[in-house]
Amino acid sequence: RPRLRRPDGTRVMVVANQKGGVGKTTTTVNLAAALTQLGQSVLVVDLDPQGNASTALSVDHHRGTPSTYDLLVNGATLEEVVTDSPEVEGLAVVPATIDLAGAEIELVSVVARESRLQKALAAHPRVGSAEEAGEDRFDYVLIDCPPSLGLLTLNALVAGVEMLIPIQAEYYALEGLGQLLETVEMVRKHLNQRLEVSTILITMYDARTRLAAGVAQEVRDHFGDTVLRTAIPRSVRVSEAPSYGQTVMTYDPGSSGALSYLEAAREMAGKGVGA
Ligand code: ADP
Ligand code: MG
Description:
By secondary structure, this protein is of the alpha/beta class.
């Protein structure tokens, strides 16, 4: 495959939407795999206690595995918790264990509790501009958030520069987005001025229904160029892949799901401004 040009520095992208089941995890792992196939160096940070991204990338995440919990709560460094995905060659992952479920509460009494992830990323030698981090730098860090706006997602919003919001093409698609955008505003004002919603991706698009087309149009009217032209189709192959510990990029590379994630990755890279 033709390699994409690398961004000038690490793009830290937060995949968030407090609604569950909209395609955050599916988007994180498949975009990560697609970007890796296109020659980019990628790190996935699993911030959901369910560990679905870890599972989809075949990364061990039983209790006691070095994980995002250690990073946030125990002060571990990123080097200490990062591992390679056995599924996607060249993809680095920080897995999430179920311990992370307790972190929302444990973090409440911790100093600078909302900037733990930001500090850990900033301290890593492979995160930063080309001058700071050199040739070995990560081009993308994709952070998979849990379906809530608690301290875990807040850590991601403070650590990130760009936000990628997956929106499922169904009836209640825009419900809850107001609250999400208010949270982004609050974070910008008080914690992280650089944060911006750079990318919106329509997921589980069913071209046969008028409803999906209507919802997609509404999202585009509302968010303009922020919305990627590529929508991810609803496809059984996409939903089957994780049960084989695979991304759809290797499970069925020729499928509409895999091709759409590749196209979305290219579009995203084309819009890249660098961190
Ligand atoms: P979230 O992380 O936002 O909770 P997931 O990525 O886990 O959402 O997706 C929710 C469910 O929808 C999963 O069962 C997943 O396999 C399925 N799914 C996601 N994207 C697609 C798609 N494009 N086509 C079919 N099923 C999908
Ligand atoms: Mg998820």
